[in-house]
Amino acid sequence: MKKLVVLTGSGISAESGFKTFRESNGLWENYEVNKVATPEGWSENQELVLDFYNQLRKKLQEAEPNEGHKGLVELEKYFEVQIITQNIDNLHERAGSKHVLHLHGELMKARSTVDEQLVYDINGWELKLGDKCEKGSQLRPHIVWFGEAVPNMIQAIRITQGADIFAIIGTSLVVYPAAGLLDYVPLKIPIFLVDPNDVEIPLHRNITLIHEKAGKGVQTLMQKIINLPLNKS
């Protein structure tokens, strides 16, 4: 079975009404990014940071997977599908995708502030001051904040290098290091980009643009790749 690797970004979650990407004005859901998504912000005001992510979890509980998420599950009938997502929501998993790698963390998880290997599921939507890990340290959101390393990047590179088909959905290829995955896609395999916006396509790769939103675009992608011959070297 061919391996389809899909890199997803905020565009696919936006169709579910869940937007958490950084806007051009430096705000993230009307919060200053440096106040709620940096280690410095956490050191300055833990209560503010916890409240921000609590509100995001409440919004996530109201959101539902859309046709884009469901279409990627449908593709598992034809391909070995591996999703690499920049999104912190769990909409891929809730839609039924079996293999999802989160680059920027997971909103529905918390981790220890003294041992990053201690990660816990969050029941409900609230993480509070005083919620501690087994070592007695305050729990923080399991999110990769600006200025922090992306620990799953090495695994993402390995997955990308093994792709037979590579698709990009809902991300403009300007957020690094995730955008750098394109450099690890095998040279002769087909690459598809699903995005309704005018995206600057890198000239050094042959990329097929599907100029549609994620929901419709995934259906178009499916039509294009189901009978695509394998041409990988």
Describe this structure in words.
With 233 residues, the chain is of the alpha/beta class. It has 8 helices and 11 strands. The strands form 3 sheets. The chain has a 6-stranded parallel sheet with strand order 5-4-1-9-10-11, with helices on both faces. β6 and β7 (119-121) form a beta hairpin. The model has no long low-confidence stretch (mean pLDDT 90).
Keywords:
alpha/beta, elongated, 28% helix, six-stranded parallel beta sheet
Short summary:
By secondary structure, the protein is an alpha/beta fold.
Protein topology:
Elements: E1 3-8, H1 10-14, E2 27-28, E3 31-32, H2 33-36, H3 39-44, H4 46-62, H5 67-74, E4 80-85, H6 91-95, E5 100-102, E6 105-112, E7 119-121, E8 139-143, H7 153-161, E9 165-169, E10 191-194, E11 207-210, H8 214-225
Helix pairs in contact: 5-8
C-alpha-based Rg, rounded: 18 Å
Strand order of the largest sheet: 5-4-1-9-10-11
Mean pLDDT: 90
Give the biggest beta sheet: 6 strands, parallel
E-strand count: 11
In percent, how helical is the residue content?
25-40%
Alpha carbon gap, first and last residue: 16 Å
Structural class given helices, strands, pairing? alpha/beta
Task: List SSEs in N-to-C order.
Answer: EHEEHHHHEHEEEEHEEEH
- Beta-sheet strand percentage? 15-25%
